[in-house]
Design a protein that fits this description.
The protein has 760 residues and is α/β, with parallel strands linked by helices. The strands form six sheets. Strands 1-4-5-3-6-7-2-10 form an eight-stranded mixed sheet, sandwiched between helices. The chain has a six-stranded parallel sheet with strand order 11-16-15-12-14-13, with helices on both faces. Strands 18-17-19 form a three-stranded antiparallel sheet, with helices on both faces. Helix 26 packs antiparallel against helix 27.
Length: 760
């Protein structure tokens, strides 16, 4: 007989599990539940955040509370997330903890998971009888799909709306869903779950605060004040021994990848977090790289203890396992229960389970895997993770390092070692650095700590790898870059941001900013609202055509001059994608903690030159600097010794043969009055005059309460969103004198452009 039906796990009915949950919540989870109890008793409607750090159990805390306070009372739950794995995790949590003690008044509840995945249901199948709707924001966030939600909401006077990874709820699709639900239902209880509520730009923080308005302060609930009902930071959970103290180590390989990557392979990495088979094979078969991984463990085997290694492929996992065993380290690999075409290996779930048990008992020291151990497997005594594969996914990185974060009171260890193996990539790829997972507000690390300083330098170092790799490539003419003063080759800061790409990947990106590009980026940020005003779309994902037009406009307006180091057009594209989703400019981090005097390579070279150090003395001197015992700043910045030595040699060349970098004296330049220059150029020549003109313009705009925009009249309490503008544009004969200067807000300045007053 033909089978007409198959089980479909994305929808179904959950019945209570007899008895009570054997898992006891930690104190911070009980405190969060208590705070939610108070908020729920006090208000019929509210919008608040629950802030628990990575590893703090957000999903468990929320689901156990909602079972009791929503489902047991026959109240509907709409659970929103941006990634399919998050949807599955939520559904599993509700099913796993649906004990009769939590839901004593109901015999069952219906759930449905909706997303673009073939494993999940579709929006058209949403049933008014569903009690728990777990849905991706892209599946429901478009106007056409929201209509499918209306019958489900019809007749409801109260609903619980949960936003997972709530720091992303500033995206317009999230806001659209939230607004839609609030229009349809009188009492909406909006709860956002996040580890990093304020790892965002100020504008985005303000938008987040506008969404989540209610919270608790000093044991009392407050409306329209603070938007956090409960918060515990990473340091506190480490102090309570619930989480391990993360210790980050980075080892740089000598391997170069991505030289002939191609657009398709590059986009596959950026958008799908997937390496091409050729690239995976190249990494897997790198003898020196694999040897570095194994040797690193051997040097600190007792310290690292039980270690999970994340490999790039099945072939890589098998290779590393063999190398570990050959070195006397008992290792096993676990992979998905598939037959690999290259190796012919088939691993059953039962075999995997045996290997996992051997790891738990200590018979196996190192467990190598390919993403199979990112979640759901209980391995509490894991002390170390080796990140032998790169990723652009913040979620995947969080899952990987989370394997070692269980603290002593949670059956784990006091210290967790997070060991990264970083390759040289000839293409700019926004690989996630594991330590950035813990950056959130002032939580970790503190701004005055050595860890914070080192983190800033590592951010710089990541970008320098690419630049220095280019310098070392003899096929590339680097004379122009080398001629630039050394200090201008050190980034002044970076734009760091996250957004959700079209494939639902939590995408992290950093844009390094140099002296050469800083002004252009600042002007671009100011102009973003005006640039997007003409975009006729409600979709937060820009089409290639629209993105191309916006990128061209930015190039023509802001990046239309020679810049050394140059800007990367892809950086501009990612900023535009971020703004389309968040409608705010990304956050800028100034590298203000770096003591640049210790990086003064020209001064180092001059000492070698002045003291006439021979080859041996020069080597000894540079070795001493490289192995500096204070904060190893040079080593942290340059990453590899060869880059440092190369820079010293370049600066020595400038001293011994200055004519190499000297401009040809065959041009006599015109003279130009200072008033004919824009303010930024005046600043380079006469900073005092530039300040006088700027302050004079602001003085003219001064009113009670702040400064008034000369066009729209809006008053601003500070100068952050104001610009000095030429009344008659310079390209129409205007000059930089006080009489021709006025103050405009960013919006008006962006609209005015190079037009005269009255033309716009």
């Amino acid at each position: 007989m033909k089978q007409e039906y198959v089980e479909f796990s994305a929808a179904g009915e959950v019945r209570p599990i007899p008895g009570s949950n054997a898992r006891h919540p930690y104190q911070h989870q009980l405190d969060a539940i208590c705070a939610l109890d108070h908020m729920d008793e006090e208000y019929a409607s509210y919008s608040t955040l629950v802030v628990l750090p990575t590893g703090g159990g957000k999903t468990y805390t929320a689901s156990t509370w909602l079972l009791r306070h929503a489902l047991d009372k026959r109240k509907k739950i709409l659970w929103l997330a941006h990634r399919q794995t998050l949807l599955d995790q939520a559904a599993e949590s509700f099913q796993k903890f649906a004990y009769s003690t939590e839901i004593p008044h109901i015999s069952s509840f219906r759930y449905r998971i909706v997303s673009g995945s073939s494993n999940h249901d579709k929006t058209v199948n949403i049933d008014p009888e569903d009690d728990l709707l777990i849905i991706s924001k892209d599946s429901i966030g478009r106007e056409s799909n929201l209509a499918c939600l209306a019958p489900w909401l019809d007749g409801e006077s109260e609903i619980f709306l949960i936003v997972d990874e709530a720091h992303h709820s500033t995206a317009r699709t999230y806001r659209r869903v939230i607004d839609f639900v609030k229009e349809k239902v009188e009492h909406v209880k909006l709860i956002g779950l996040t580890a990093t509520p304020f790892r965002t730009a100020e504008n985005e923080q303000g938008l987040l605060a506008h969404i989540y308005k209610d919270g608790m302060s000093n044991g009392k609930s407050k409306k329209n004040d603070i938007g956090i009902v409960y918060k515990v930071d990473l340091k506190e959970l480490i102090n309570r021994q619930i989480l391990s103290h993360p210790h980050f180590e980075t080892y740089y390989t000598d391997e170069e990848y991505g030289k002939d990557l191609g657009l398709e392979a590059w986009e596959s990495i950026q958008h799908l977090d997937t390496l091409s088979p050729e690239l995976s094979q190249s990494i897997a078969e790198s003898g020196p790289r694999n040897k570095l991984i194994v040797d690193t463990y051997l040097k600190k085997a007792d310290e690292y203890g039980k270690t999970i290694v994340f490999a790039v492929s099945i072939h890589h996992a098998i290779t590393l396992t063999k190398l570990f065993n050959n070195a006397g380290i008992k290792a096993e690999y676990v992979v998905s229960s598939i037959k690999d075409m290259g190796t012919g290996v088939t691993i059953s779930a039962k075999e995997n389970d045996c290997k996992l048990e051997a790891f738990r008992t200590g018979d196996v020291q190192v467990l190598v895997n390919v993403n199979i151990l990112t979640e759901g497997v209980d391995l509490p005594m894991t002390k170390t993770v080796f990140l032998a594969r790169p990723t652009v996914s913040t979620i995947l990185m969080t899952q990987m390092i989370g394997r070692a974060l269980r603290g002593e009171k949670a059956g784990g260890t006091n210290i967790a070692y997070i060991v990264s193996f970083v390759d040289n990539w000839n293409e700019h790829i926004a690989w996630v650095s594991p330590d950035t997972i813990f950056v959130g507000g002032s939580e970790w690390p503190p701004k005055d700590s050595p860890e914070y300083k080192k983190q800033q330098i590592r951010w710089i170092a990541i970008s320098k790898i690419e630049e220095f790799a280019a310098i070392l490539n003899d096929a590339i003419d680097t004379e122009q870059l080398e001629a630039v003063p050394f200090w201008e080759r050190i980034p002044v800061g970076m734009y760091a941001f996250q957004y959700i790409n079209e494939e639902g990947i939590d995408f992290s990106y950093q844009v390094m900013v140099y002296n050469s590009t800083q002004d252009a980026y600042e002007k671009m940020m100011q102009a973003l609202p005006a640039l997007f005003e003409g975009i006729d779309t409600d979709d937060e994902y820009l089409s290639d055509d629209v993105l191309g037009k916006l990128e061209l406009a930015c190039k023509q307006r802001f990046f239309n001059r020679e810049m050394v180091p140059p800007y990367d057009p892809r950086d501009v594209r990612h900023i535009l994608k971020y703004y389309a989703q968040k409608e705010s400019e990304p956050k800028f981090y100034t590298f203000d903690q770096v003591d640049r005097s210790k990086l003064d390579v020209p001064a180092i070279a001059k000492y070698v030159w002045d003291e006439d150090l021979g080859p041996k003395k020069k080597k000894d001197y540079l070795d001493t600097l490289w192995e500096g015992v204070d904060d190893n700043l040079i080593q942290l910045f340059f990453c590899k010794k060869i880059y440092f030595l190369r820079m010293v040699d370049i600066e020595l060349l400038k001293l011994s043969d200055p004519q190499i970098y000297a401009a040809e004296a065959n041009v006599t330049y015109d003279k130009r009055a200072l008033e004919s220059l824009p303010l930024d150029k005046i600043k380079e020549v006469d900073p005092a005059l530039e300040e006088e003109l700027r302050e004079g313009a602001f003085a003219k705009a001064k009113v009670d309460g702040g400064y008034a925009c000369a066009h729209c009249g809006k008053i601003f309490s500070n100068r952050r969103y104001l610009n000095v503008d030429h009344i008659i544009p310079m390209n129409k004969g205007g000059v930089s004198v006080l009489e021709n200067l006025q103050i405009l807000c960013r919006s008006c300045n962006g609209k005015k452009g190079d037009q005269s007053e009255g033309e716009y």
